[in-house]
Design goal:
The chain has 13 helices and 22 strands. It has helices spanning 2-15, 18-21, 27-35, 73-85, 130-143, 268-282, 330-340, 343-358, 363-377, 400-411, 416-420, 440-443, 487-502; strands at 45-52, 57-61, 90-97, 100-102, 105-107, 110-113, 148-149, 153-156, 191-197, 207-212, 219-227, 236-239, 245-253, 259-264, 286-287, 291-294, 299-301, 311-312, 320-329, 446-453, 456-463, 474-481.
Length: 505
């Protein structure tokens, strides 16, 4: 029996990865050993793995522990989007119509057929400004000889089927700008700006005014009031896709200056149609039927409320198309996603992978497509769980080992250079103040993505070798969960972990 046990242990040691066979004794590991059981991380979960491309371990603490990664998840969705769609892929939006055109009159509806483009009217620098985009669409109409539309302008988002967001997101997140989800046809990042101002004293009503985009079909209600001095901004907009109703709840401190709240718009298809209708009418093209969108039942509707469809929508393949516009490249979108930590862009990329690879953008299909894509890269998902593309889900459970395996696989992929260009580094952009005391030469060798959500802080990425030897590249992941310390306490600690890891090559 003893002989068999010895053989089994020998097999385990041989088959285990190098970092699991021996524990390093460098400064990074010493620091981790010192802090992992200290006051800050007492009762918390800390997982760390840093390993070189040649298999040497740099640092390891709980590398197999499943943890919420927050926005580190975007490293996966952007990498897979670049691999599966291609870095030069562009989303297409088509303008078409039903019916027929006679003597300058369209006897039918004008359709804006979305293809998942998240940059439509986003006002991002990588995309056409809204007025330029609408002018292009109007020109398609004019060039088709249409001077009057005896029908509706319809926003068609059917390209993405299924729910707009996963059911594992928290309800309060769904009304925020960072919880908008990706639609088949979007407008202004599927968000809406609302100006708010406190009343004269605690308990008094706040002032709330819709700024942009306008949504005349929406009914806004206030269940909020002015808060006590020092209580900050605790306003949340609660919305539902089932009716044109939004409720602002919470408090806005009496000592807060007026501000613009960026909230969720769950009817971007109708919003897009409405703004194109306005653009056409300002250009002298009458639209007799107004603006509409398409409900989940396939019915055209002019008010976003189920059960009140006007008539069946025409299938996309049966329309007559008169023009198309295209998004920036996936690489450009992925770069904004990672640099700005953009949930909305990440979810759209995630859903597009599902639409392309398994024919559906439903979240269950997207998970299948993502796991298949990871398998193609040789990355196992048997010990992890992924529920969305952005990391907003509280049901994403990933390990430091998984991130290192993924980053290693991406480095070996044909699209690695494009992927690498999408990842930020300390001292620049949103990481301007990270590793502030470290030498520029060290910071320049780090490429990483941060993630943060209540009680969570994570950083994963690459450390490029000072030696210039590819085998010295470090893949690393640092994930903290369930920590009560503020980010002002946590970030300097994680900065030091990353700096000590980077100093090892």
């Amino acid at each position: 029996m003893k002989r068999f046990l010895t053989i089994a242990l020998a097999i385990l040691v041989v088959s285990a990865p190098a970092w699991a066979q021996r524990k390093p004794r460098n400064e990074a590991q010493k620091y981790l050993d010192n802090i992992s059981n200290g006051k800050v991380f007492k009762g918390s979960h800390l997982g760390v793995l840093a390993v070189k491309a040649n298999g040497d371990t740099v640092a390891a603490v709980n590398p197999f522990k499943r943890l919420m990664p927050a926005s580190n998840n975007k490293l996966i969705s952007t990498g897979l989007a670049i691999n599966e769609l291609g870095p030069d892929f562009r989303f297409e939006t088509k303008i078409g119509h039903s019916g027929y055109v006679r003597d300058g009159v369209l006897y039918g509806d004008l359709y804006i057929v979305g293809g998942g483009d998240p940059t439509t009217a986003s006002e991002d620098s990588i995309a056409d400004p809204t007025d330029v985009l609408l002018a292009k669409w109007k020109k398609f109409v004019i060039d088709a000889g249409i001077r009057e539309i005896r029908g509706m302008v319809i926003g068609d988002g059917r390209y993405f089927d299924g729910a707009y967001m996963p059911d594992s997101w928290q309800y309060e997140d769904m009304g925020t700008y960072y919880g908008t989800g990706g639609h088949g046809l979007s407008f202004f990042r599927n968000s809406q700006d609302i100006d708010v101002a406190a009343g004269a004293a605690p308990g008094e009503p706040i002032t709330m005014t819709v700024k942009y985009p306008q949504a005349p079909w929406m009914n806004f209600y206030k269940e909020c009031c002015t808060g006590e001095k020092g209580t900050g901004d605790e306003l949340y907009l609660y919305v539902t896709e089932f009716a044109p109703i939004a409720v602002m709840r919470g408090t806005f401190a009496v000592d807060r200056k007026p501000k613009t709240e960026s909230c969720s718009n769950l009817f971007p298809e109708l919003t897009c149609a409405w703004y194109l209708k306005e653009c056409l009418e300002e250009g002298g093209i009458e639209v007799t039927g107004g603006a509409g969108d398409i409900g989940a039942d396939g019915q055209v509707r002019n008010v976003p409320q189920y059960g009140k469809g006007l008539y069946p929508a025409v299938a996309a393949e049966e329309l007559t198309y008169i023009g198309s516009t295209f998004s920036p490249t996936v690489e450009q979108i992925a770069r904004v996603t990672n640099w700005r930590s953009d949930n909305y862009y990440a979810e759209t990329l995630y859903r597009m992978i599902g639409r392309k690879n398994v024919g559906s953008a439903d979240y269950y299909a997207c998970r299948k497509a993502e796991y298949n894509a990871l398998a193609k890269l040789g990355v196992s998902t048997s010990e992890v769980q992924i529920r969305d593309g952005s990391g907003l889900s509280r049901e994403d459970y990933l390990t430091p080992e998984f991130f290192c395996n993924f980053l290693r696989a991406m480095k070996g992929s044909k699209n690695y250079d494009a992927y690498y260009r999408t990842i930020g580094w300390p001292g620049h952009g949103m990481y301007e103040y990270r590793l502030a005391k470290e030498p520029e030469a060290l910071k320049a060798r780090i490429r990483y993505k941060s993630g943060s959500i209540g009680g969570v802080l994570s950083y994963s990425g690459y450390v490029m070798p000072s030696s210039g030897k590819s085998e010295d590249t470090i893949f690393f992941s640092v994930i903290v969960n369930n920590c009560l310390a503020g980010y002002d306490v946590l970030r300097p600690i994680v900065d030091k972990i990353v700096a000590l890891i980077a100093a090892q090559n």
